User: Which sequence fits this backbone?
């Protein structure tokens, strides 16, 4: 029988991973990953290359099978939960040859599984406008996507996710192949954005000031090294567990280092 | 003057050819913008060449090319789609292997089965020889292709632009992938009599490439591509009648001419803006 505490967790938890294992070919990409993310949180997913960040996103999105353990989205398996997630993949996986307008890309978030769209044209336009206002690009609605900067393009894809009304937004390597200015641009958007109860997960290599931008951090190195408040979980041990011999490069991002700086 | 211009249409074979050319031009050029933006030119070429062994066997069994059209197109689309998805040699290599081996197999089968096929007609098209039945088949295929593209336009566009995003959104990407391959294959097979195996690619890609020169809006590029496709097919056929030229290559050259004009118009526009 569920205790009151369990019920409370079930009501607020949107992603529950319990010993989740994923294999890519013969290589284990995620091994016994356990964490629980509550609704409306902004979560940074950090870890080394090959640490399983993209694999975890793919597993949540139902793109790769879970070989052991379980991963539930809103209490459903990832395949059953399709449509409740919006995924912004790595930039090189998107075909930017297509001469599309910002409006056309955001509208993709409103496309239904069936051939006919049930939304009226007015409703579609107001949803597109609202999503673009939320990411600060309402004036770019008719702009060709090839005329946008890297940061602006990422904003458009985030707007597509917002228009979709998905419960969860996954941003995979949102900062790869964009300059420092664009990274700051997307980061400040993530900090300021009105998620309206949505949960956002961002895979990133940047450990700078995570506590200012995210509610929680998930540290991955094929297994879950730590999960929780960034100012508490990014300890020397956790960073060593993630980056091993490269710890020195990240030692100024530990919780201890931040506390010393504050003092 | 008008009498001279209308002269070709006194002959029933020219009316049949014109209808077929316009239908082929329409269905190929509606698919062209998708094909060029998805870099599927090589794939389309392989589809055209892969028809040869099916045509050889079909003709040996007593079928005409038109009768073979739809089943051949579906077979090729599923076969190519499956091999590309499941081989580990890379898409380009897989297409290259299928392309060359099927074409070679076609020639060998024509020889072994002793089939009477005019290879020149097959390679470069022989639109003037289309029968009333061929016209019905090509026009029906054109209607089916246009209908399916219009019906699934937004889903196909999403899938072509961001396949992972589309799959996560819950779209049936496997269905969309095979739908496009089947539709493309149908358009190619249906156009074999118009422009032939070698030149079908020109009618698929050139009108779309020309439209991309003058618009940066995908939807407009489809409309313009269709207009260019129809102009190329119609005027190519017309010119071939008056100057006694081979029709398929003439259509292809008209399309190329349109592309060259659009290319320079686009360059001029850019210079003016600067």
Assistant:
């Amino acid at each position: 029988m569920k205790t009151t505490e369990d019920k409370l967790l079930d009501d607020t938890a949107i992603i529950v991973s319990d010993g989740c294992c994923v294999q890519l070919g013969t290589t284990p990409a995620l091994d016994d990953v356990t964490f629980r993310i509550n609704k409306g949180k902004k979560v940074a997913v950090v870890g080394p290359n090959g640490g399983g960040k993209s694999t975890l996103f793919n597993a949540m999105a139902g793109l790769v099978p879970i070989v052991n353990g379980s991963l539930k989205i809103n209490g459903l398996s990832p395949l059953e939960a399709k449509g409740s997630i919006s995924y912004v993949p790595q930039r090189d996986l998107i075909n930017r040859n297509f001469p599309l307008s910002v409006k056309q890309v955001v509208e993709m978030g409103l496309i239904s599984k069936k051939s006919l769209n049930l939304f009226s044209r007015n409703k579609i336009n107001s949803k597109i406008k609202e999503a673009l206002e939320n990411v600060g690009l309402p004036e770019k609605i008719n702009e060709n996507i090839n005329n946008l900067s890297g940061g602006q393009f990422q904003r458009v894809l985030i707007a597509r996710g917002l228009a979709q009304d998905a419960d969860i937004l996954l941003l995979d390597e949102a900062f790869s192949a964009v300059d420092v200015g664009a990274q700051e641009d997307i980061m400040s958007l993530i900090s300021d954005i009105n998620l309206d109860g949505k949960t956002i997960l961002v895979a990133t290599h940047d450990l700078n000031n995570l506590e200012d931008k995210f509610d929680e951090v998930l540290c991955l190195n094929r297994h879950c090294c730590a999960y929780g408040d960034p100012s508490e979980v990014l300890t020397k041990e956790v960073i060593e567990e993630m980056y091993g011999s490269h710890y020195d490069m990240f030692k100024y991002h530990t919780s201890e280092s931040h506390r010393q700086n504050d003092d | 003057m008008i009498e001279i211009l209308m002269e070709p249409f006194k002959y029933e074979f020219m009316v049949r050819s014109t209808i077929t050319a316009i239908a082929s031009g329409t269905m190929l050029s509606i698919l062209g913008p998708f094909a060029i933006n998805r870099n599927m030119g090589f794939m389309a070429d392989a589809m055209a060449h892969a028809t040869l062994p099916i045509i050889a066997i079909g003709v040996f069994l007593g079928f005409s090319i038109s009768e073979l059209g739809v089943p051949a197109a579906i077979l090729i689309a599923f076969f190519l789609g499956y091999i590309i998805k499941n081989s580990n040699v890379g898409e380009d290599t897989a297409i290259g292997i299928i392309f060359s081996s099927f074409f070679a197999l076609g020639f060998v089968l024509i020889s072994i089965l002793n089939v009477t096929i005019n290879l020149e007609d097959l390679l470069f098209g022989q639109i003037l020889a289309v029968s009333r039945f061929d016209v019905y088949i090509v026009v029906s295929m054109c209607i089916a292709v246009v209908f399916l593209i219009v019906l699934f336009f937004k889903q196909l566009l999403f899938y072509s632009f961001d396949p992972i995003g589309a799959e996560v959104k819950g779209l049936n990407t496997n269905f969309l992938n095979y739908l496009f391959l089947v539709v493309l294959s149908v358009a190619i097979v249906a156009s074999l009599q118009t422009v032939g195996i070698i030149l079908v690619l020109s009618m698929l890609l050139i009108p779309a490439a020309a439209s991309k020169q003058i618009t940066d809006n995908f939807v407009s590029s489809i409309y313009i591509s269709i207009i260019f496709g129809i102009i190329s097919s119609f005027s190519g056929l017309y010119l071939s009648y008056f100057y006694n030229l081979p029709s398929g290559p003439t259509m292809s050259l008209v399309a190329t001419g349109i592309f060259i004009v659009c290319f320079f118009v686009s360059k001029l526009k850019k210079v003016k803006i600067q």
